[in-house]
Design a protein that fits this description.
Layout lengths: L5 H9 L9 E3 L5 E3 L8 E6 L8 H12 L4 E6 L10 H12 L18 H10 L9 E4 L5 E5 L8 H11 L1
Parallel strand pairs: 3-4
Antiparallel strand pairs: 1-2, 3-5, 5-6
Protein name: Glutathione peroxidase
Keywords: Oxidoreductase, Peroxidase, Signal
Family: Belongs to the glutathione peroxidase family.
Amino acid sequence: MRQLPVLFLAVLAATPLAAAEGFRFASIDGGEIALDDWRGKPVLVVNTASLCGFAGQFDGLQDLHDRFGDRALILAVPSDDFNQELADAAAVKEYCAMTFDITLPMTEITHVRGAAAHPFYAWARKETGFVPGWNFNKVLIAPDGSIAATFGAPVQPGSAQIVGRIEAMLQ
C-alpha cells in the first residue's frame, strides 16, 4: 500500500468534508443571495414564519445583523412548511418591515424540509441529520463553510450559545 505524505494527510484532515458553497437563495428584494459571497465569514441561516409564536425572535435576528454588519450574514428564510407564513413574499416583507423594522437579508418563501426542501437544507440534513422541526431553527455555518452548529427554535438569537460562537469565529 502506498504511503501518503504527512503534509497531505494534515491538509486533508483540515479540509471540511463538505462546505456550504454554491447555495443561492432567491432574495425577497429580488435577485439572489449567494452564500459564496460570505465565504470566510460566519453565516446564520434561520427558517422563519411571520405568524409563529417565535416571531419575536425577528428582533434578535435584526440585533445580530446590526451588531455584526458585513462581518457575518444573518439570513432569514421565510417558510410555510409549518403553515404559519403569510400568503406571499410581498406580504412577508411588509409585515416584517412594519412589525419588526427588519432590514436584514431575507429570502422568498422557501421549503426547508421534505422532498421540496431548498438544496441548502437538503445538504444540512445530509451532513448532520438536521431537519428543522419548527420555525426559527438555526444553522450556523463556520467561515470554512462547514456546519458549526444547529439550534432549535427555543434558542434565542442573542443567546451566548449563538453570539459566543459567532464572535469566536470573527477573532
